[in-house]
Each structure stands twice: as structure tokens, then as C-alpha cells.
Design brief:
heterodimer, A: alpha/beta, Rossmann fold, Dimethylsulfoxide Reductase, domain 2, Barwin-like endoglucanases, 4 domains, seven-stranded mixed β-sheet, six-stranded mixed β-barrel, disordered C terminus, B: mainly alpha, Cytochrome Bc1 Complex, Chain D, domain 2, 21 helices, 61% helix, disordered N terminus, 4Fe4S_Fe-S-bd (chain A), TAT_signal (chain A), TAT_var_transloc_signal_dom (chain A), Molybdopterin oxidoreductase (chain A)
């Protein structure tokens, strides 16, 4: 099998081949003085002379530093000791129970709360990065009132008085617009506001609406339990990446994917989708489907499963196979759909009903509340605003001007509403148009409660005093309702019934989660659920686009989300898309065939037009994209997000179709090439050193069941004594590890490629954000990357029939629907590390605990180590990312005192000219060891984990001490030795301390059969 | 005769000088000895009151003397900040406490006084009100431990009764044992040496003058004699040829080389000293004296630097810690008024940081104090003698590494090290299990 890393490699384009083996792209520097004409030698000498003199003078005086203690030290806060507080992250889409790591009173990192029965200690990439948003200087720092084109500061009391008077005088309807709110107490506060101003209605809408799903299930999202499903069929639901509750589902999904000698079974996952999503790339069987065919596909599946008969326009043998599998696993299967079409969702609900999945994998008794938006209500409000019947509108963390497909109508509507107020955290696209701004505090500065699922409660507590003169939105609404209670008291009162005693309350605050219910049932949907027959009928009657029409599907990015509320978070902007590996901006993902037919090249800017709206974005050739379709990500193209988020990509929300049945995130578009080119900043297609056999391995479940010892190919090297394991032949002396021997195992079977580890690593280790141009220059700094490999359907054993050249050509032929494999790649901490031998100054050395140490203050930046690293995991500091003004917009958090509060004080901020790389989170290892020493014991297994292992929602990464025979890692390695455990590039015998476990696919595939023959 | 006298004079002078030098050194040694005594007085190893106490407690049952000794240690770690036997400090004097109150009342009071006050106990409320409603903190001491403290207090009462007239409290006397004498000796010796030195200088000047006069006199006498031959006259009249010496290439060479060497040495020294702040002794915003607090009053280091045993940072005490005592003691002092002012204005006190490690080096206090069991003085020097704190150690990497190379790991009773020590000893019998043999000189132990 041959893996290729991108279209360029597949095509062997000459430009690509030229740079394929260079780790760094040759860059024409416009900011450095390498050019002889711009900096002649004499100037250099002059400057150097001055520099030396200046340095000498500067070093004459040591600056006086202050040590400033508390005036009155809180008892539980000790300098340099981190405290963890339980809290909750919910931004209107993604629910995560978190532990906030607070150091000297500053939140510096978020980790998953293991107490939570929903997220179980997992944390999404989005939540990992959320701590950075607290220190976002782009937030509105005071209450403001509109004057002219801008806003000017106003005293909260003055604003309260004015707004109260105006609200009281309002005759028309008052609307509070917000994303989904799952907080019982916030809802209570809104209800109290509504009681004071009886014309008030609360309108919730979701940036990625699931109204269809809500409608089909009586106004709620059913709880799904993927862990009990043997067969998973998803009709376009990206449930591992973005759909409803990805962290929860990922964990459940991974439970069905973990296998061992004793459990040789795993779920089979069918995915029918348009764009290549994270979920699709993990599927065993993936079928590309056009958005307009999705309804017919649902009908076909419904017919096949229930035997209802009837014809469907959609025919696919994989679908038939899926239906067969589903029927064979009644009660242990699950069908989900990401469509917002109520008819499709009605059919999906009926399929699950027919399969007897309700009560096993589908739980209607404890539904999820994380989506409550009703498209019809929001559309009605937009119309009302425009026809002048709305007297006042309050936007509560909602930015519909930007993220609602009817944004332009919202904008014109706001102009017609007499009183407009924004509680948004910044003067964003919507807030800027409002007369008053009463910014909400950040969730890390606020008290709140949450009920993500009926019966499951979660609490948010402030970990820092509000940084700016902001006020919690709930408190603002209560003030206007004439209730001057502080929100904490108000919240405590809500909880009085659940936690009558202070001790019980303290326990909930401590744990962060509780059981019990406090949320009133969701309001009924405007439209009733459809019967299956009506649904089939409705789908049949739906207008079909012409066969050659190009359809667009709008999707949500795993990192950034659809609402755009995290747009100013540079960590998420630079988080590579799990599949395309693109950063900083959206693009038009097109299938290869379309690009070839239209002679588009990657980076060509094309104009996409629909609904009378057009946008221009570069083309990205995406294997797996359904023919005749393109896809564009939502959540980009902000104009008032802040320094990092503004003017990145284009806003695709207006391309969505508003129908009578709700918003559809697909449409028919016309594409036109423009003359412009705009390079896409991808993190992969370079590092091609990895493109060798035995880097990443996979096999089929059938083979694993037959013999687990034959799923991994172990390379042998030729010696005088015959073929031997590479480790038998070595020039090196082996190290002896007496104390600890740190190691890591990555199960490729349960790694879904979500990128949570990448952000976890970035926050833990103060890794700089470098911005789009530097990513294009191949200088991103992530210590941990997730390599994504596509596979092709051809194999070397065709040499005899097709010939070598023919086979290679065929192998290079892009398959329309490739299989995808993810491989987290970080420093392998080699025992025979090639980097160590080439360092001229011993800046990288081996430790007695098996770690490959990088000493920044010794490094002189020869970069020999990076050149000699077979895994290409070393990162060089080309600039002072913390002080070079070129990086101020993207890496702003290292520039200001405000932003620097997020840095981890235990990790050095690396200077220009030094190499850096994954350290196995040495600071966490040292801390864990110290705690053990203080308590006069050995460290316990699981006590010391790297940030990536800690953040992995699927527990694919296991970190531990290989010297401890009882550690989880040692047990795992013993069990998998000779079966799935392998080292990347084993033949070069660098003896990494990172072990991978072969990926097993539950699919009968022809090329696997050949491979195993 | 004359010449003999002249020749013996330098010897005499040398002998004199040596004698003085000897005296001086002895005085210095005296001072040094006091330092060591005092150092032992502030052993921070005893800070972990609970552990020290539990270690001592079982012995308390053994006999009266043992109980009193245990009580002494417990009193110093737990009570001495606020109580003395015969003197009111923050809380009441403890003399006669067992006569005033029954032990059955004292036990719950010491364990949790606020509970007793809250319960409305008449005596408890009275004492609480009498001492400005200053809450006595609760102590997690066992009954045996409290009893041994009481035994010690009773024993001290007896002692102090004997010296009561002198007006020196027993506790203070114990704390300053010998220190005053030593201090006096030090001061006395210093004065003595000064006087001797002055006398010596005067004597020397007189001698030199005398010698010059004698030399001139003798030259005059010789010039007066006519029986001298030419050679004698030449010798008598010869003058030193400075010009010749100036022109001498050998001398020029030697001087040149010495000069170059000195320059080089100084240059290297000054370059190496860039960024070195050993001896740095900035003026602090409040004239806090470690000599007074840690030295004379024997206040445990960790009483103020609360996190030194548990955290990376040995925190600078917050103003509320000062107020634990200074809400009562020396409230009129202008320096302490500065603390009051800071609290009133809600402006934290901005101390000048003395020990500045570069950010690239990670140092953890608790690793060195709690795990390694080092004394504060090992790195911070005779802190208990410092009126104004200065940086005692160089804090260079070489200084760290040297210690890591030489210092044996404190592996006793620490299960973390058990197996490591065994492995080490089987391989290198005899060699100490130093920090560096456990990987303590590897880069990423301190740099990450």
C-alpha cells in the first residue's frame, strides 16, 4: 500500500518534488539582512561593534526586581503551586466539564474533569484553547453607549437607568436573542426579566442549527450511546468532530474501537457524507453522497431496514450492506444524521425505532439540551424586526449579523428597532450596531450552572476577578428586571432545593458536576414531527437540482466552530484542520475531478455565488469530496472579532438556504475562476521524510481475529547471521535506566485525529503561534502534530500484471474516496537519538530517565539536530515570537502583560535562534516525582501524564513509566508486543520510547486481502 | 653593636605583628563559633512542627525529663510566637497556668479555642475579650503532646522563680545562651586589636624616623673622617642609579608580563562577574531585621516563609503574617507603621528581590528543604546574623553543579530512593549516592 500525503505528491508536480525533501521551504526573506546589497559587510561590522559596546554597557547594571507579596494571603493560594477548580465550558455548542488550572490566581490551562459522567475527563480542542480567550484584549472592557460611528464609555449605573427607562417605555415586542442556553438559573433570570417586561420573548438559535433533529424528537436531542452500537451509520453527521457533543461521542465511539487479544471485536462504522469530515475519515466504510441525494439515501435506508418497500432514487450497494448489518444488530446499532431536514431526521428516528435502538443506543428519557434553537422562531423574529413590530432587542452572546444566514436582514432589522442592546463580550458585527453595550464577563470570571442532559448538572465557578469592567449578563438582566441580587446568591437560591445544606453545595462546587434536574422542559417546536410516510413524501417532492449543478455544503471546523465566537483565538486559527491540514482561513474544498476538469490548481481563487451573495476563496483539492460538490467552512471571515480573527477567510453563512422547513446548510452555487491566487497555509505536504514504509501500519479486523500476531509487519535487516531485528545490530551502547524510563503508546485504532492534544500541548508548553505566512514557510511551532495519510487502492503486487511503471502510475492515481489514517507525531525520545550525536555544543543530550533533553540556553542554533531527526519533530525559533512586531497580531498573548498571564511559568519562553521540541512534558514529570518524594513514596501510575495524554478524549495516548512493571503502559506494551506494537521507522534502529499500535479496520477490502495474501 | 641592634629589629617587629595577627584571628574564630551555635538554633528541620512533635511525642511518656524536653520543642514550634512563661507577649503569660485552669479545660482550649469561646464558656470568653479578641489558632496536638508542653511550662516556672529578680525570662535566657557573651567578646577583641594596631603603627613610624636619623648621623660621622680610601668614599657617596633600572630590559620585561597578566586576570574576572550579584544587599522599603527575628527571637523560617516546604517559591510573607504578632508587639515602631500604612492603603509592600535566578533555570525550594532536608543557611548563609539580607551564594550554575556532585541524596526513610540506593550500592560500593549519581546534573533537571 502506498500512502500519499497530498495531491502534490500524488501528481509529483515538479515544484513539489523540488522541495519535497527539504524540511523548510527556501524562503526569500524580506525582513532579514542576508542580501549583500542591503547589508554590506562593513555595515555588519559597524553594527556588530556597536552591538558589542551596547551589550557591554547594558550589562553594567542589573535591573532591580521587586518581590511583591499579598497584603492578605488567601489560605489556599501558595505562590507557584497550582490549584485546580472545577468549572464548565459551554459556548453555545460544545459542552465540556473542565478543571481550571490556576497558578498564582491566574487560570493558565484547562483540563477535562474526570468526575463528569458526560465528558469523562476528555476535552475538545476548542475547550483546550478557551483559556486564551479570557486574556483576549479584543474584549470590550467597559460598558458603552453608541455615539456616532463608535461607542463611548458609560457608567454601568447610568446605562442601567437609561435602559430600564427605555424598556419600561417600550410598547412593542422585546426579544432576547441568544445561542442555546442550558443554564437553569440563566433561564430563571430571563424568565424574571420576562415577568417584569411581559412582552419579552427569548429566541434561541444555533449557528449550526439542528432544528430538524429537534422537531423529529419532540423538541430535544436524544442522548446517543455509541458505546453500545456494533453498527454505526451516519448520514452526514460529523459526530466525532462537531456534531452535538463530540467529546462525549468520541469517547463512546473509541470504546467500541479499542481491541486486544481478548476482545477481538469492534464496531463497524458507515459514513455517508459530502465533505471529507473527521468522522468520515475514521469510518470503516465511507460513501460520498451529494447533499441533494441525502434525503433519497435516508429513504433508501429506511426502506431497506424496515422493509417498507417503495422506491428510492438512491441506490448504493454499501447502503444495502449497511442496512443488512443494521438488521443483524437490532438494538445494538445506531443511525444518526447531520441533516437539518426534518423529513430526513424523522426517517432516521423511525429507523432507530424500527431497529429497537430506543432504550439502548438512543435515550429519549435523558435527552441532551445542548441544542435548542428553533429556526422558525428566529426567522419570525428577523421578519418582525424588519416590519417594525419589535420594540427592543437584546443580543445575549449572539452575533446573528455575522453567523446567521439571514445576517443582512438582521442588520437592516436592527436599524428599525428603537432599542438595541448587546451583552456580547466585544463590539462584534452585531454589537457594533447596537445602541448599548453591557459586556458579559468571561465564563472563567462568572458563576453559572448548566444542564447539558436531563438529570446531569454542572457548575461553573469564577477563578479570577473580572479583568475588565464587565458584568455577568444574567446579573445585568436581573438589574433591569429590578432585582439587585448578586448572581451568586441568585444561583444559590436556584440550587437550594438540590443542595439544601452548605456542605452539599460545597461538594457540588468542588466536584463541578452533580445529578438532578433543574431545567424546565424545552418549549415545543413550532412545527410538529413528521410521520415516516409524510417524510418520504416530502423528500420525494423536494426539488432536485440539475444533474450538473454544483452543490455546496457548509460545514463546521473542528477547531473554530460555526458561530465565530472563538475566531479571535489564534490557537484555534492555527490548529490544522484534521483532514485538510489547512490553517488560518477557509477555502473551497473541491474534488480532484472538478479541479482537473476546470484546470484549477490549489490556491487559485474562485468566486462562489448563491442567494445573490458571493465570496472569493482559494481552491483546495480534497480527496474524498463528493464529485459535483464543493464544501466551505463556516466561522471565518469575521470583520470585528479582534486582531487575530479579522479578515481571515470569508463568511460562508449567507450561502445557506432558508426554506420553510428550516435552514439547510447546502445550496446550488455557481463557481467562477478569478485571476487571483492565494496560497493555503497547510501544515502537511512537507515533512515528507515520513513518507516511508513502516511509518504507519494498518490491517483488517478479519486478519486480527485470525491471528493478532500477523497484523503488523516488522522489518528485518540483513546481517551475516541472516535477517535480524534491527535492534540486534547496533553501533550504540545501550542506556541503563535505574529510576524511571518514560514512554508513550499511541493506539492508532482509537486516535480519531481531533487535535485536542495539539492544543493541550500548545497551552502547556508556551508554544508560539506563527501566523499564516510562517505556516506557508513551513515554520509552524507545534511540538505535536497529527500526520494524516491518505491511502490509495493500488499495491505493489500488481507489478507482474501491470508492470512496475504501470503500478506506480496507478498508485499515484488519486482515488476518489481514499482511506485516511491519523498518526500523532511528537518527539519519539529515541534511546539512540540521531539528534544527540550531531549537536556540536551538547545542547541536546540523553537523560537517565530515557528522555531526550533539549537545553535551550545551550543551543546555538546550528539546526543539525533537526536535519538529522528522522521524524522531523524539531522546531526552530526563527524569530522572537514574543517581541517581533510581525507576530503581534497572531501571537499577541506573548506581547502584553495581559496576554502573558496565560503562559505556564514552569516552561521557558524560547528565544530566537534556538531549537525546541516535545519534552514529554518534563515539567509535569518533575512535579510528579517531587510530589512522590515529598510523600516518601514512588510515583503512582497515572499520576504523571503528559499534556497530550491528559487531554485525549479517547485515551488513545498512554503515558507512563516503562520501568514500573505494573504501569498501564508496561502492561499494554507487554500485551501488544509482537502483535500491534511497532515503532515508526523501526529499521533505522533509533529505538524510540514512543510505541504505536497498528490500526485495525473493520472492513472487507480488496487490497487488504491482497496485502495479507 | 649598633648594626646588630638594627638587624634584630625587623625580627622583633615581625614577631610582634604575628602575635597581634594571632589574637585577631582568635577573635574572628570566636565570632565564627557563635555563628555556628546560632545556626543550630534556627534549625529549620524542626519547622515541620507536626513531624518533629510526633517523633518526640512517644518518648514523652517515658519520664518527666523526656516529657519536658519534648514540651520544650513543641512549645518553641507552636506556642513561642505568642506566649512566654512569665511575660505577656500576644497571649497571656503561662506561668501558673496549670494552677489557674484544670487540664481538662486546657486540652479542648488548646485544640480549638474558638469552639470553647463560641460555646460560651465564661473563662474562655473573659480571656478572649481581655486579649483584644485575638483568636488563638487551633492546634492539632495530641493530649500527650499538650501534657508535655504543660510539664515544660511548669518546669520553667520553677526555674524562672529563681532568677525572677533578674528580670530575664527563662525563655529568652535559653534563646540567647552565650550569644551576648560571644557578642561582647567579639566587640572587645575588635577594640583591643584596633588599639594595638594604632600603637604598632606609631612605634613603627618612630622606628623608621629613628633609623633615618641614625643613618644620616653615621654618614656625617664617616664623612668627617679623613682616613677613608677611595673605595670607601665611593661606597659612602654612591647613589642609586634609577635611570639604569628604568632602562633594564629584564625589569621592563618582567613588569610588562606581570602587568599583562594582572590585566588579563582582572579582565576575565570582571567578564565572569557580569550578571553575578553575590553580595547584593539592596535597601529594603522596611528595615526588617532577620538578625532580630530569626537570630534573637528564634522565629522559625517557615513561620513567615510559609511555602518553603511545599512550593517552588519560598514566599515573601504577606502583611497579615506580620500582623499576627505586630498587631500587639512594637506597634509604635515607625518601621512597623509602614506595614499598617500598606494595609490601610491596600498597597502591597514592594520588597526588592535579592535572589534572582534567570528564568531559564528552574529551582524548587521544597525539593531542597523538604526532600533533601537542607538548612536554609546552606544557600542563604548566616541569615540569622543579617541585619540587612544580602545574597550569600554566587547562584551560578557551577555553584549548583558542585553541590549536586558532592551532596549525598537524603535517601533515609524515603521509599522513593530505596531501590535506587540498593542499585547504586551494588554497583559502586563505597561511593556516596550523590545527587549527580541520580541524574542530578542532567540538563533537563533544571532547564525546561
Amino acid at each position: 500500500m502506498k500512502y500519499w500525503k497530498g495531491i502534490e505528491e500524488l501528481e509529483n508536480a515538479p515544484e513539489f518534488m523540488q522541495s519535497a525533501f527539504a524540511e523548510f521551504m527556501p524562503v526569500k526573506e524580506s525582513h532579514a539582512s542576508t542580501d549583500a546589497t542591503s547589508a554590506p559587510r562593513r555595515d555588519f561590522l559597524k553594527l556588530m561593534g556597536f552591538g558589542v559596546a551596547a551589550a557591554t554597557l547594558a550589562s553594567c547594571e542589573t535591573p532591580v526586581r521587586k518581590a511583591i507579596p499579598y497584603l492578605n494571603k488567601p489560605e489556599e493560594v501558595d505562590p507557584a503551586i497550582s490549584n485546580f477548580y472545577a468549572s464548565t465550558y459551554f459556548n453555545g455548542a460544545d459542552y465540556n466539564a473542565v478543571l481550571v488550572k490556576s497558578r498564582d490566581g491566574r487560570p493558565i490551562k484547562l483540563e477535562g474533569n474526570p468526575e463528569s459522567p458526560i465528558t469523562n475527563g476528555g476535552l475538545s480542542a476548542r475547550a483546550q484553547a478557551a483559556v486564551l480567550s479570557l486574556y483576549d484584549g479584543g474584549r470590550l472592557q467597559h460598558f458603552a453607549v453608541k455615539s456616532g460611528n463608535g461607542h463611548q464609555q458609560i457608567e454601568p449605573a447610568v446605562l442601567d437607568r437609561t435602559v430600564r427607562a427605555k424598556l419600561a417605555a417600550t410598547t412593542g415586542r422585546i426579544a432576547i436573542v441568544s445561542p442555546t442556553i442550558i443554564s437553569p438559573t440563566t433561564k430563571r433570570a430571563i424568565a424574571e426579566f420576562a415577568a417584569r417586561y411581559p412582552n419579552t420573548t427569548h429566541v434561541m438559535y444555533d449557528a449550526q442549527s439542528v432544528t430538524g433533529l429537534l422537531q423529529a424528537n419532540g423538541g430535544v436531542v436524544p442522548s446517543y450511546n455509541f458505546s453500545r452500537a456494533n453498527i454505526i451509520v451516519s448520514l452526514g453527521a460529523d459526530f466525532l468532530g462537531t456534531w452535538i457533543s463530540p467529546v462525549e461521542y468520541s469517547r463512546q465511539y473509541a470504546m467500541t474501537r479499542k481491541i486486544s487479544r481478548d476482545k477481538r471485536s469492534m464496531s463497524r462504522h458507515y459514513q455517508f457524507e459530502t465533505a471529507m469530515t473527521l468522522t468520515g475519515s475514521n469510518a470503516d466504510i465511507r460513501v460520498p453522497v451529494k447533499p441533494s441525494e441525502m434525503g433519497a439515501a435516508a429513504v433508501a435506508l429506511y426502506n431497506a431496514v424496515t422493509g417498507a418497500g417503495g422506491a428510492s432514487a438512491y441506490k448504493n450497494d454499501k447502503l444495502t450492506q449497511a442496512a443488512k448489518d443494521l438488521n443483524a444488530n437490532r438494538g445494538a446499532s445506531l443511525v444518526v444524521s447531520g441533516s437539518n431536514d426534518p423529513a430526513v431526521q424523522a426517517l432516521v428516528a423511525s429507523i432507530n425505532q424500527a431497529l429497537g435502538n430506543v432504550g439502548t443506543t438512543v435515550d429519549l428519557a435523558a435527552p441532551s439540551y445542548v441544542r435548542q434553537g428553533d429556526d422558525a422562531r428566529m426567522t419570525a423574529l428577523v421578519n418582525d424586526m424588519n416590519n417594525g413590530s419589535v420594540g427592543a432587542v437584546i443580543f445575549y452572546n449572539a452575533n446573528p449579523v455575522y453567523n446567521h444566514p439571514l445576517g443582512q436582514k438582521v442588520k437592516s432589522g436592527i436599524a428599525k428597532v428603537p432599542l438595541t442592546i448587546s451583552l456580547n463580550d466585544r463590539l462584534d458585527e452585531t454589537g457594533m450596531l447596537c445602541q448599548y453595550a453591557a459586556p458579559d464577563s468571561h465564563w472563567l470570571e462568572s458563576w453559572n450552572d448548566y444542564e447539558p442532559k436531563r438529570g446531569f448538572l454542572s457548575l461553573g465557578q469564577p477563578v479570577i476577578t473580572p479583568l475588565f469592567a464587565t458584568r455577568q449578563g444574567q446579573e445585568t438582566l436581573l438589574r433591569w428586571a429590578g432585582n439587585n441580587t448578586g448572581y451568586y446568591q441568585y444561583l444559590r437560591a436556584t440550587w437550594r432545593a438540590l443542595t439544601p445544606t452548605d456542605a452539599a453545595w460545597d461538594k457540588v462546587v468542588h466536584d463541578g458536576v452533580a445529578t438532578g434536574t433543574a431545567l424546565a422542559p424545552a418549549p415545543a417546536m413550532t412545527a410538529a414531527a413528521l410521520s415516516p410516510a409524510a417524510a418520504v413524501d416530502q423528500i420525494g417532492r423536494a426539488a432536485k437540482p440539475a444533474a450538473n449543478a454544483i452543490e455546496v455544503t457548509l460545514y463546521e471546523k473542528v477547531g473554530l466552530g460555526a458561530a465565530g465566537c472563538e475566531s479571535n483565538n489564534p490557537f484555534l486559527q492555527e490548529l490544522p484542520d484534521p483532514v485538510s491540514k489547512a490553517t488560518w482561513g477557509n477555502y473551497v474544498a473541491v474534488p480532484r475531478k472538478m479541479a482537473v476538469d476546470n484546470q484549477w490548481e490549489q490556491g487559485d481563487v474562485i468566486k462562489v455565488t448563491a442567494n445573490g451573495y458571493s465570496l472569493e476563496l482559494p481552491v483546495l483539492i480534497q480527496p474524498g469530496q463528493t464529485n459535483g460538490t464543493v464544501s466551505i467552512a463556516l466561522g471565518y471571515g469575521r470583520t470585528l472579532a479582534g486582531k487575530a480573527g479579522d479578515q481571515v477567510g470569508a463568511n460562508a453563512a449567507p450561502l445557506a438556504t432558508a426554506t420553510a422547513n428550516g435552514l439547510m446548510y447546502h445550496n446550488v452555487v455557481t463557481l467562477a475562476k478569478t485571476e487571483a491566487k492565494s496560497p493555503i497555509a497547510q501544515t502537511q505536504t512537507h515533512h515528507t521524510i515520513m513518507d516511508r514504509k513502516s511509518v504507519v501500519q494498518e490491517n483488517t479486523l478479519a486478519q486480527y481475529i485470525k491471528n493478532p500476531k500477523e497484523v503488523t509487519e516488522y522489518e528485518k535487516v540483513a546481517t551475516p547471521d541472516g535477517l535480524e531485528k534491527p535492534s540486534k545490530v547496533s553501533l550504540w551502547q545501550d542506556y541503563q535506566y535505574n529510576n524511571h524510563h518514560w514512554g508513550m503508546a499511541v493506539d492508532l485504532n482509537s486516535c480519531i485525529g481531533c487535535g485536542s492534544c495539539v492544543i493541550g500541548c500548545q497551552t502547556e508548553n508556551n508554544i508560539a503561534v506563527v501566523g499564516k505566512q510562517e505556516v506557508i514557510n513551513r515554520r509552524e511551532m507545534h511540538w505535536m502534530r497529527i500526520d494524516r495519510y491518505y491511502s490509495s487502492d493500488h499495491h505493489k503486487d500488481e507489478f507482474e500484471t501491470v508492470g512496475k511503471v504501470g503500478t506506480y502510475t496507478a498508485m499515484e492515481d488519486p482515488s476518489d474516496n481514499p482511506q485516511v489514517i491519523f498518526q500523532p507525531m511528537m518527539c519519539q525520545q529515541c534511546n539512540h537519538a540521531p539528534c544527540e550525536t550531531v549537536c556540536p555544543v551538547l545542547a541536546t543530550t540523553h537523560s537517565s530517565e530515557g528522555l531526550n533533553q533539549m537545553t535551550y540556553n545551550r543551543c546555538i542554533g546550528t539546526r543539525y539536530c533537526a536535519n538529522n531527526c528522522p521524524y522531523k519533530v524539531r522546531r526552530f525559533n526563527w524569530f522572537s515570537y514574543y517581541s517581533n512586531e510581525k507576530f503581534e497580531t497572531v501571537n499577541g498573548h506573548m506581547f502584553t502583560d495581559l496576554g502573558r498571564m496565560v503562559l505556564n511559568p514552569d516552561v521557558t519562553v524560547r528565544a530566537r535562534g534556538v531549537m525546541e521540541k516535545c519534552s514529554f512534558c518534563i515539567q509535569r514529570i518533575q512535579l510528579g516525582k517531587l510530589e512522590a518524594k515529598k510523600q516518601k513514596r514512588r510515583p503512582m501510575d497515572g499520576e504523571i501524564v503528559s499534556a497530550c495524554a491528559q487531554s485525549c478524549p479517547t485515551e488513545a495516548i498512554v503515558f507512563g513509566d516503562m520501568r514500573d512493571p505494573n504501569s498501564r503502559l508496561s502492561q499494554l506494551l507487554r500485551r501488544e508486543d509482537g502483535e500491534r506494537a511497532f515503532h515508526a521507522l523501526e529499521s533505522i534502529n533509533v529505538q524510540p520510547n514512543v510505541t504505536y499500535l497498528t490500526k485495525i479496520r473493520n472492513a472487507e477490502s480488496e487490497f487488504f486481502a491482497k496485502e495479507n495474501a | 653593636m649598633n648594626s646588630i641592634r638594627l638587624r634584630s629589629l625587623p625580627h622583633l617587629l615581625l614577631a610582634l605583628f604575628l602575635t597581634f595577627a594571632g589574637t585577631q584571628q582568635a577573635a574572628a574564630q570566636d565570632a565564627g563559633a557563635t555563628a555556628t551555635v546560632k545556626k543550630e538554633g534556627v534549625v529549620p528541620g524542626a519547622t515541620d512542627g507536626a513531624t518533629a512533635a510526633t517523633a518526640v511525642a512517644p518518648a514523652a511518656g517515658g519520664g518527666d525529663a523526656a516529657a519536658i524536653a519534648a514540651g520544650d520543642a513543641l512549645f518553641k514550634t507552636n506556642c513561642a510566637q505568642c506566649h512566654a512563661v512569665n511575660e505577656v507577649i500576644v497571649g497571656p503569660a503561662l506561668s501558673g497556668i496549670t494552677k489557674r485552669r484544670p487540664v481538662s479545660w486546657l486540652l479542648p482550649w488548646i485544640k480549638n479555642s474558638s469552639k470553647l469561646v463560641a460555646s460560651g464558656d465564661e473563662y474562655a470568653v473573659a480571656i478572649y475579650n481581655k486579649y483584644n479578641k485575638q483568636q488563638m489558632p487551633s492546634f492539632a496536638l495530641s493530649d500527650t503532646e499538650i501534657n508535655s508542653i504543660l510539664a515544660w511550662v511548669t518546669a520553667e516556672e520553677g526555674k524562672s522563680a529563681n532568677v525572677a529578680g533578674a528580670g530575664v525570662t527563662a525563655g529568652n535566657a535559653a534563646a540567647t545562651d552565650g550569644q551576648a557573651d560571644a557578642g561582647g567578646a567579639e566587640a572587645g577583641a575588635g577594640k583591643y586589636v584596633d588599639i594595638l594596631l594604632i600603637v604598632l603603627v606609631v612605634v613603627l613610624i618612630v622606628l623608621v624616623v629613628t633609623l633615618v636619623i641614625i643613618g644620616n648621623l653615621m654618614k656625617d660621622v664617616l664623612r668627617g673622617r679623613k682616613d677613608l680610601d677611595g673605595r670607601d668614599v665611593e661606597i659612602l657617596e654612591q647613589r642609586f642609579d634609577w635611570g639604569k633600572m628604568y632602562r633594564s630590559p629584564a625589569l621592563r620585561g618582567i613588569v610588562g608580563v606581570v602587568f599583562a597578566l594582572v590585566l588579563l586576570y582582572e579582565g576575565v574576572q570582571s567578564v565572569m562577574a557580569i550578571g553575578l550579584t553575590q553580595g547584593y544587599q539592596p535597601t529594603q522599603p522596611i528595615a526588617f531585621s532577620h538578625k532580630l527575628h530569626a537570630g534573637e527571637h528564634q522565629i522559625n523560617c517557615a513561620y513567615c516563609h510559609t511555602s518553603v516546604y511545599k512550593s517552588k517559591s519560598a514566599n515573601i510573607p504577606s502583611a497579615n503574617i506580620c500582623m499576627n504578632c505586630h498587631s500587639q508587639i512594637k506597634t509604635e515602631s515607625p518601621e512597623i507603621k509602614k506595614i499598617y500604612r500598606a494595609i490601610e492603603r491596600k498597597q502591597p509592600i514592594q520588597w526588592v528581590r535579592i535572589h534572582n535566578l534567570p528564568d531559564l533555570a528552574y529551582f524548587n525550594h521544597s525539593q531542597h528543604t523538604q526532600v533533601a532536608g537542607l538548612q536554609c543557611q546552606t544557600c542563604h548563609g548566616p541569615i540569622q546574623n543579617m541585619e540587612v539580607v544580602y545574597q550569600y551564594s554566587a547562584l551560578t550554575m557551577g555553584w549548583c553543579i558542585n553541590c549536586h556532585r558532592e551532596m549525598p541524596v537524603n535517601a533515609k526513610d524515603n521509599k522513593y530512593y530505596d531501590n535506587l540506593v540498593k542499585l547504586h550500592n551494588t554497583k559502586n560500593a563505597g561511593a556516596p549516592f550523590t545527587v549527580s549519581s541520580n541524574g542530578g546534573t542532567e540538563c533537563s533537571k533544571c532547564h525546561y
